[in-house]
Amino acid sequence: MSWLVTGGAGYIGAHVVRALAEGGQSVVVYDDLSTGAAERVPEGVPLVVGSVLDAERLGQAVRDHAVTGVVHIAAKKQVGESVEQPLHYYRENVTGLQTLLEVMAANGVDRIVFSSSAAVYGMPDVDLVTEDTPCLPMSPYGETKLVGEWLIKAAAAAHGLRAASLRYFNVAGAASPELADTGVFNLIPMVFERLEADEAPRIFGDDYATPDGTCVRDYIHVEDIASAHLAAARRLEDAPAGTALSLNIGRGEGSSVREMVDRILKVTGREDLAPTVVERRAGDPARVVAAADRIHQELGWSARYDLDAMIESAWAGWRHWHR
């Protein structure tokens, strides 16, 4: 097997590339480097710089490297930005995937692992979100991920693809500092940014219907995300044509925002900065926690890392990129 990893120079993509390579798979990275970095690509792994909208360049990369499967991670992924630029998000995420699937069909590539998201569910009013929970995305970003899953299922049925769509929950941590997330869009780096400025971290609302009044989320280490992609890639090797799995990647455990902030303050040694509570953010559901049974049944996969491992590795990465 030779796997083309789109977006393989990004935060999650670089971890997936490392897991595939260490798992004995042949890998080539395809990335436009708009948010990725060439230095994230391991030595010896080819890097092709290009857009997923460029069918000619994609096709050439597939033929040059004898690609037999694709891990599709490249996408625009900021919820707020997607509300402001829906046409851009649909073009990059949906038309980009359509272009990729057309290239795969034209070149006989019949396996794809798709980077989806828990954003496909929207604001589910359930204790545990299963893969059968209704998908009601609340942003153009979430819509593009759900449309992507539909498109892949249709292509699997029509063209005999073997596919797995992996719905990420809240990704955190790093395998090593140089692979850490450099963005400030999620809870952990947002707290780090406040601490670096010697300011108290903020909690957006403490009056939710949860045990401590703050939102509850399912956090998953990026190394676990990467190992799930390797497990999916291996599963597809023997899967029958037309297979189209949709699987949650989470730990099945909820952690409140207050609990996470307290843990971050302890790990960073900044317990002197007690968090302040501010108004709720629009659209934040009270609780979103994955049911992780199906991925274990289908792939034999389970998460390995706990919250402290996520926070400690993320903190090491933050200091690496912000020293």
Characterise this structure.
The chain contains 10 helices and 14 strands. With 323 residues, the chain is an alpha/beta fold. It has 2 domains: 200 residues, 3-Layer(aba) Sandwich (Rossmann fold); 106 residues, UDP-galactose 4-epimerase, domain 1 (Alpha-Beta Complex), CATH 3.90.25. It has a 7-stranded parallel β-sheet, with helices on both faces. Helix 8 packs across helix 10. The protein is globular.
Short description:
The protein is an alpha/beta fold.
Question: What key phrases describe this protein's structure?
Answer:
alpha/beta, 14 strands, seven-stranded parallel sheet, 2 domains, three-stranded mixed sheet, 323 residues, 10 helices, Rossmann fold
How do the strands and helices of this protein lay out in sequence?
Elements: E1 2-6, H1 11-22, E2 26-31, E3 47-49, H2 55-64, E4 69-72, H3 79-84, H4 86-106, E5 111-117, H5 140-159, E6 162-168, E7 170-172, H6 187-196, E8 202-204, E9 216-217, E10 219-221, H7 222-237, E11 244-249, E12 255-256, H8 257-268, E13 276-278, E14 287-288, H9 293-299, H10 307-322
Parallel strand pairs: 1-2, 1-4, 2-3, 4-5, 5-6, 6-11, 7-10, 8-13, 9-14
Antiparallel strand pairs: 9-12
Helix pairs in contact: 1-7, 2-4, 4-5, 6-8, 8-10
Number of H- or I-type helical stretches? 10
- Which percent range describes the beta-strand content? 15-25%
Profile the largest sheet.
Answer: 7 strands, parallel
Report the count of strand segments. Answer: 14
Low-confidence runs (pLDDT<50, min 5 residues)?
A: none
Name the average pLDDT: 96
For the termini, the CA-CA separation is 40 Å
At the first level of CATH, the class of the largest domain is: Alpha Beta
According to CATH, what is the topology of the largest domain?
A: Rossmann fold
- What structural category characterises the helix and strand content? alpha/beta
CATH superfamily of the largest domain: NAD(P)-binding Rossmann-like Domain
Shape by Cα distribution:
globular
Major β-sheet strand ordering: 3-2-1-4-5-6-11
- What's the CATH architecture name of the largest domain? 3-Layer(aba) Sandwich
Helix share of residues?
A: 40-55%
Provide the number of structural domains. 2
Reading the helices and strands in chain order gives EHEEHEHHEHEEHEEEHEEHEEHH
